[in-house]
Amino acid sequence: MTDRVAELAPKKAALTPKKEGTDTRDRIVRAAADLFYLQGYSGTSLDTVARKAGVNRGSLYYFFRSKKNLVLAVIDYFERLIHQNFIDAAEEGASGGRGRLERLAEFYSGMPRASSPCCGCPIGKLSLELSGLDDDMRLRLKDVWAGVIGRIERMVREAQAEEALHPEADAAILARAFFEQIQGAHIIARTTLDEEDLRADCRRAFESLPWMT
Description:
- By secondary structure, the protein is mainly α.
- Helices cover 69% and strands 0% of the residues.
């Protein structure tokens, strides 16, 4: 099964899990993640998910009683990928808060591919589609964003402790603004498919932080 989500990932931080399960449930979740990313939640039927996963409807319903249950599992899956392959990779591949923030912006700028029919952050795409449909979905997505921004805030505080960022700036506000700017750049990139502009926009998100030098 070709994972189109993985094809859209930056080369330095592939959007695939560090450890892929081989059981039926994992196959269903990966198939649904791929389809929801490319076609949207509303545009994907459970029959289509079952066919892509290579299972029958009975097997799918054994693990997921409803489409809502399935998309909540997909949100969990995407959350793990973002933490493992973008935030963890940024933390492990650079030293200091400044280096980690710069690397994270670089990784996010490489997430979409202009040759794809769609691009951008998978959690961002689901947020745009699902937040108005169901409160459970909205609150789960809210938790994902809180976790991501919380880890970025930790990088900001590291940079402040290193005296690289202005020490009196509110770290929580800076982290949120930095990530919102990157997510906004991805929304625009979905229409322009201009990777050069996206890289420049993500770079500006990093450079616009109140650096001391």
